[in-house]
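Continuing the batch. This is chain 6 of the set; chains 1 through 5 are on the previous pages. Same settings as before, nothing changed between runs. Recording input and output for traceability.
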Amino acid sequence: MSVDGWNTVLVLGGIRSGKSEFAESLVSAAPVVRYVATAPEGDPEDTEWATRLAAHRARRPGSWTTEETTEDPRRLADVLGSAEPNELLLVDDLGGWVTVLLDPDHQPADDVATIAELAEAIRGCAARVVLVSPEVGLSLVPTTPLGRAFTDALGAANRAVADACDAVVLVVAGQPVWLKSPATATAPATEPSAPVTASTAAAAPVVASLSDSEPTPEVQLPDVLTPTPPAAPTAEAGNPWAAPTMALPMVSTGLVIQPGMELPMPDEYAGPQAVDRLATLDVPGAGLGVLDRVVGFAAATQGTSTPVAWASARVLLLHGDHAGGAAAGTVAGESARRAAQARAGQGALARLAAESGASLQVVDTPASAPIEDQPALAAEQVESALRYGWRLAEQAADAGVQLLVLGACGAGTEAAAAAVLAATAGAEPPSVLGRVITDSGEIDDAAWMIRCAAVRDALHRTRRSSRGAKDILAELGGGDVAVATGVLLGATARRVPVLLDGPVGLAAAMVSRDLAGQARHWCLLADHGGHPAVRLAADVLGLTPLLDLRMDLGEGANALVALPLLRSVLALSAALPVHPSLGGTDDTAPADDEPESTDPSYADPDLTEPDATEPDFAEPEPAGPGPASTGADEQPASGWRAG
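Output for chain 6:
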């Protein structure tokens, strides 16, 4: 199930408000639902309560299964934690759960901790979950201690669960009011298709399928460049560093990319094990600091507690312009010049790629229309762009690439990304749009206001449109964000991690949540670059930037600056031995079978007179007019070979 991009929903409502019926309508089209009942049976002589429970049971389809957690309130967290990704759970309701929680027979040592455990279980639940809970915060304060204890505990539970859920809806007199959700779910609760379509609610796990009815037209992928570091400066100019290699042959796959795809997740155990292993290494000082997260990320994505440095990386530079006010303040043709510069192996991005030993692929994406007046792309263009991005990731994986670096250059990209964030995260355009800097280094406030107005008008134009992933890409995101989204999905499917850098990549990560929520777990953010949009998206996605360099070399270039540092950390963590105090070997100690030297000519260096012995190493001879070595047979110290 997917409620316009959210996979966990809390349904609140008063007594007889219709909250349970509304929650059931969210999952009514699903073929199989696991109904988790939390309310106790109550007094057998209470016929009115028995009638209520019977009415709830009568509404459940025969295909649903029922599971009760009334005996142990802690079991609800266990049920959520053990749920499979292809399951759909309906928990009804938290009021009954709190009743059991406060029962003296079930009273735990700390009910606050039990509520916190439930919230964490919801955050980590792999299944799709709808929870129902009474909203008692609008009523009078109860006059009895037991009543006050119930309302306090239920209020705390509702707040914790609402914070953990992706969406929250309040049902009043049968009418849903979304408190944390898309603005499009306004249909009556009795209509099963109000916030969720039947197709999305019943969507089976799908990664990709073949379409025989509509063959996908083959689009030639761009060349992959392998930049090499520049030679020493000479009198001659214009020597190219890179020559394009032949693009790998690709076959049209007819991919069907749709919401609710079940893609792989990183190894949940390897990451923590790798971080724990760091504490055992023979490292002086306090260790790697915050960069231990790099080790944990690499371990989870590689599926081993001893990850290795990424030997093969590829930069995907997405080039596509946005028309209209989104591009205010940019010089016409500047993005095309940057893309041509990268193709020629020149400019900051190509130089950094060469120094990092990364290949470079410049990708032209569809141009986007003015979002303030019309959709950025047609629906069929969005489908084609998603498949195109997926194929780019597949091509990289087939070539042995171990890390993708996502970058973008194009007029209006920041404004388009800001529009996507405003639609998906509820942000105001001015808060996610960075200042416009001219070529001379001055701040252009007039251009910034035009961009803000364009995003504002685009959001107003689409206020009644669906907030589904493909609709957002068509209305606001445009070609570069759509291709970037396809890259993230394809990389996730092939278990290739992605290093994000800049608003376009983060906007694509936000959109990808509705199509496959697993994609964000394969993303790493090296630096926020000072972009407010990147800061907001990273906070929503749970991506903590590793560095705070605040560089602005262009999207993708900032990540390449950090890449050698990340590789060094991984190489160090893989090579260092265990500390001798924890069972490791001390390489400095003499072996048992090697007696100390008895040679009378041996002298302790610390006790030798300065001129008593000859130096161990000869002094280097003065450099002559020619170079000491031609370098023809020399190899890079790192041993890395560009692919």
